[in-house]
Write a structure and sequence with these properties.
With 456 residues, the protein is of the alpha/beta class. It folds into three domains: 61 residues, Nucleic acid-binding proteins (OB fold (Dihydrolipoamide Acetyltransferase, E2P), Beta Barrel); 195 residues, Vaccinia Virus protein VP39 (Rossmann fold); 144 residues, OB fold (Dihydrolipoamide Acetyltransferase, E2P), CATH 2.40.50. 25% of the residues lie in helices and 31% in strands. It has an eight-stranded mixed β-sheet, sandwiched between helices. It has a seven-stranded mixed β-sheet with strand order 9-8-7-10-11-12-13. Strands 1-2-3-5-4 form a five-stranded mixed β-barrel. β8 and β9 form a beta hairpin. The radius of gyration is 24 Å and the shape is globular.
């Protein structure tokens, strides 16, 4: 029978995609169904049919999987953040582990067996950062929450199980303040309104918490800030800073380049592996602090450092990985393109009494090219790029410096596999792979890879 839109069919779920959808087959069609688990028999409603693919929604679970659990979030299907909230955490780890191995083989052509995935000790309330878009609900009241998957439609959610409880109290306070003082949220379609996002960061080690409102205007354009400060200070003594981030661009980029402090400090201080890190709103910092420390320990182990080594830390952010490893090497050179992050890295080196770190503000590829021209030959290079992976200039420059080992920390298995394939073609062999789950219940997974230079 030919598969058509609006048909209702029964299928067996035999696989799981990286974004939590179940995969089944009907005749010659592969059918994708969100919120399903492997081993289930389900009735589905076909929404869209392509040449040999179809997309459907779940109607009924005829035979449930032993891995299925009851979702405990009322908006999890609408929000789209926790794509694995309907299955056990063990099953989620199995899916993520398989994703890493399959992706490295299919895209990278690598015949390497990943080591056992490292799960997170905490799977709820683990995030140290949240960015909530602000808008109006159907009653015309200000609300906040998260963008629904693949859209900029706000799903109202003042309470998220991935965030610490204090975030809910902060968000409720900001929304109440906006409603009481008629503070308009930013509307993307018109470019009007003032408050775009509520950005919160918290340091688990010190409990320091900063609230930052991203606004469409100057600092003076936001009224009633005294009331905002008083209301937030009343929430908790842990709130050590309140700031504004200025973003007046017609863009979907959340943060602007300028921050203005209203109260306290816009920085938090966290501690990982005995190293103190001061983090500003514009600096990259892993959202799961406890698991990040384990991730960096794995990277350090893979690096095999000695006290006479020079370490190059590309995409260093606030210096987290490089400073974490500084005591193990002669010299560490950190490279980062965001000026505020480089300032944080320099400050963090000083705070920790680390004198063997040099921090450079530059694009990763250009900095690597410059270091090469200066004759710098690192023994080990650590790469921790954004989701898009490394550009060609960065890879070429790293290879030209001929480090003995390259440790690649990735948040996207696909771009990692692509880059590893390029490295393998340029004389670097993939030796070890380990997935680390920093983002329980979501589709994301980190991977640490060790590459060694092939000797002639």
């Amino acid at each position: 029978m030919e598969l058509k839109k609006n048909m209702q069919i029964e299928i067996e779920i035999t696989g799981t995609t990286h974004d939590g959808s179940g995969v089944g087959r009907y005749e010659d069609f592969v059918v994708f169904v969100p919120a399903c688990a492997e081993g289930e028999t389900v009735k589905v409603h076909i929404l869209n049919v392509k040449k040999n693919l179809a997309f459907a929604k779940l109607i009924e679970i005829i035979k449930p999987s032993t891995k299925r659990i009851n979702p405990d979030c009322p908006v999890y299907l609408k929000c789209g953040g926790c794509v694995f909230r309907h299955i056990s955490y063990d099953e989620e780890l199995r899916v993520k582990y398989q994703r890493v191995g399959d992706t490295l083989k299919k895209i990278g052509g690598l015949d390497v067996f990943p080591e056992e995935i490292l799960g997170s000790a905490e799977i709820e309330g683990y995030r140290n950062k949240a960015q909530y878009p602000v808008g109006y609900d159907t009653d015309g009241k200000v609300t906040a929450g998260f963008f629904a998957a693949h859209s900029h439609r706000i799903v109202s959610c003042l309470s998220c199980k991935l965030q610490p409880p204090i975030f809910e109290e902060i968000l409720k306070t900001v929304v109440k303040w906006m409603n009481e003082n008629l503070i308009a949220p930013y509307i993307e379609q018109t470019g009007k309104g003032i408050v775009r996002h509520v950005f919160i960061r918290r340091a688990p080690a010190t409990k320091q918490t900063v609230v930052c409102l991203v606004i469409n205007g100057s600092a003076n354009s936001l009224p009633c800030t005294d009331m905002l400060i008083a209301s937030l200070k009343a929430v908790s003594a842990d709130i050590t800073g309140i700031a504004l981030n200025i973003n007046t661009e017609r863009t979907n980029v959340i943060m602007g380049r300028k921050c203005v402090t209203l109260y306290g400090s816009d920085r938090i201080t966290d501690i990982l592996g005995g190293i103190k890190y001061e983090i500003s709103p514009l600096s990259f910092y892993q959202v799961n602090s406890a698991q990040a420390a384990r991730l960096y320990s794995i990277a350090r182990n893979f690096a095999g450092l000695t006290r006479d080594n020079t370490l190059l830390d590309m995409y260093c952010g606030a210096g987290t990985i490089g400073l974490f490893m500084a005591q193990d090497v002669k010299t560490v050179v950190g490279v980062e393109v965001v000026p505020q992050a480089v300032d944080d890295a320099k400050r963090n080196a000083a705070i920790n009494g680390i004198s063997n770190a040099e921090l450079i503000c530059a694009d990763a590829g250009e900095a690597a090219k410059r270091l090469l021209s200066e004759g710098i030959r690192p023994d080990v290079v650590v790469l921790d790029p954004p989701r898009k992976g490394c550009d060609a200039l960065t890879i070429d420059s790293v290879v030209a410096m001929e480090p003995e080992r390259v440790v690649y920390v990735s948040c996207d298995p696909a771009t990692l596999a692509r880059d590893l394939k390029i490295f393998s073609q340029k004389g670097y062999k993939c030796e070890r792979v380990k997935a680390v789950d920093l983002f329980p219940r979501t589709e994301h997974v980190e991977t640490v890879v060790l590459m060694s230079r092939v000797k002639d």
